[in-house]
Automatic annotation (TrEMBL):
The keyword Isomerase applies. Gene3D superfamilies: 3.90.660.50, FAD/NAD(P)-binding domain. Keywords: Isomerase. This is Carotene isomerase. The lineage of its organism: Bacteria, Pseudomonadati, Campylobacterota, Epsilonproteobacteria, Campylobacterales.
Length: 471
């Protein structure tokens, strides 16, 4: 059996981007589901198409890592720049997150008057721009060379950002904006939950900036659903769709990959699955122990999909921030993605809508079937009613083909119950998993290893791993 150069398990952002950069090699990619993209997939139900989660595509612009990777893969995506990245609805306030700084500043000053708003948001924007101008970001472990390169990268960050690497976001907000209102704080934290999976109390000023500044970049709608990105990135890759990997056995100079359909050999393995589930694939005690050292991130999502029969013009993305926490959730807000009316695939039977909020994976996994259905319906009804309250021209009968998903749903289709990894904070950065493992030829990629969530965060990890693999 001739070994592959590279076997990739999982077609999420990390696995697909990495495969596209190595298509000149003998590469094979396995995907358990029929749909590509993992948490960012597109699926068909009731004869319509829906995105599985929040659908912002950001980072496709000059001097940004996402476009750099897509350019190297020789792929130009079919995308439409959103005029408003996110429209935030909070009580009687409407705040448009837009790329134009002065326009956004007008919005924030009207919603939350503060004499230091310009100073605060200008600093956020400047730190973000400075970060993405860096060319040699690196983080890996388990060899002297990796530690030296990681230290050098940290020194570059320290030189460029100084105390902002360590200074807490919470203290920075108080120092610049003073004692802000509860609503202003909830506005900031709701944005951070989308981008960083955490709030301002646990992060540095630099992380705060990266989390809040992404709407200052170009934000796109993907025509044909998010899965179109993965289909095109993988068009030249040997793709094993609907094939689940059951076991990986480390041999002398390769890995034996056992699926539910066949066996394969590969010189190197990249796991684009959640790092918290990787131990299940190995019998080797040392490898199992390595993966079991990473504590499960309990954060997941509750997602609602439906079609909307409405002729009204909508933006692509909204966020609604409520007064009280959503039932069975850990958030007061939910994120809405609406298909473009001119998207013939996604809007073939009315607009395709995806609504998502944050919840705990363990809650949904630890209740019986009857209670699960009851609580799922409670959460769904609450969110739908809140949605209708904020879009007064939409009637309940305009919503059809409604369904919802929890951590148990994600586990069934994409083999993971959590969504995203543990947020990188001041206290845990040194424990953050790297793409490199202590075992030769075994790597990880995706949102549960450095550098984290979303297209830009995962793309940083892809660039680092690609350099590791190719020297």
């Amino acid at each position: 059996m001739k070994p592959y150069d590279l076997a990739i398990v999982g077609s999420g952002m990390g696995g697909s981007m990495l495969a596209s950069l190595n298509k000149e090699k003998d590469v094979v990619l396995f995907e358990k589901d029929k749909n590509l993209g993992g948490c960012a997939s597109t699926f068909k139900r009731f004869g319509s198409y829906y995105n599985a989660g929040a659908t912002t595509f950001v980072g496709y612009e000059d001097k940004h890592i996402v476009k750099e990777i897509f350019d190297k893969a020789l792929y130009i995506p079919d995308i439409l720049e959103s005029s408003v990245a996110i429209r935030v609805l909070q009580k009687d306030k409407i705040i448009d997150r837009v790329k134009d700084f002065e326009h956004f500043l007008e919005q924030i000053n009207r919603a939350f008057p503060n004499k230091n708003n310009r100073e605060f948001w200008q600093k956020i924007k400047e730190l973000d721009e400075r970060f993405w101008s860096l060319k040699k970001l690196y983080y890996a472990k388990y060899s002297l060379t990796s530690y030296i390169k990681s230290l050098n990268s940290f020194m570059v960050l320290l030189y460029n950002f100084k105390i902002d690497i360590f200074k807490s976001a919470k203290s920075f907000i108080k120092e610049v904006l003073g004692e802000i209102s509860k609503e202003y704080k909830e506005f900031i934290d709701a944005q951070l939950l989308i981008t960083l999976q955490t709030t301002s109390k646990d992060i540095s000023v630099l992380s705060l900036s990266l989390g809040l500044a992404y709407p200052f970049h170009k934000v796109f709608y993907v025509n044909g659903g998010m899965e179109s990105l993965f289909e095109n990135l993988l068009k030249d890759i040997n793709l094993k769709r609907k094939e689940q990997i059951l076991k990986i056995i480390k041999e002398d100079d390769s890995y034996r990959v056992i699926s539910d359909k066949d066996e394969y050999l590969s010189k190197s393995i990249v796991l684009n699955s959640s790092i918290y589930n990787c131990s299940e694939l190995f019998d080797d005690k040392k490898i199992r122990n390595y993966y079991q050292n990473f504590h499960f991130c309990n954060q997941s999502a509750f997602v609602i999909n439906f079609n909307l029969n409405c002729n009204e013009e909508f933006l692509h993305h909204y966020q609604i921030i409520l007064d009280k926490e959503i039932p069975n959730s850990i958030s007061k807000s939910f994120f809405i993605s609406i298909s473009d009316k001119n998207d013939k695939k996604m809007s073939n039977k009315g607009l395709s809508v995806t609504i998502s909020t944050h919840s705990k994976a363990s809650f949904w996994e630890n209740i019986n079937t009857q209670e699960y259905k009851k609580q799922k319906n409670i959460t769904q009804e609450f969110i739908i009613n809140a949605f209708l309250e904020h879009f007064e021209t939409i009637k309940k009968e305009d919503i059809i083909n409604i369904s919802s998903a929890t951590a148990k749903t994600f586990k069934r289709y994409i083999n993971r119950s959590n969504c995203g990894g543990r947020p990188i904070t001041l206290s845990n950065i040194l424990q953050t998993p790297s793409c490199k493992t202590p075992f030769k030829g075994l790597y990880n990629i995706g949102d549960t290893v450095f550098a984290g969530q979303g297209w830009p965060g995962v793309a940083i990890g892809v660039k680092i791993l690609n350099e590791e693999i190719n020297g």
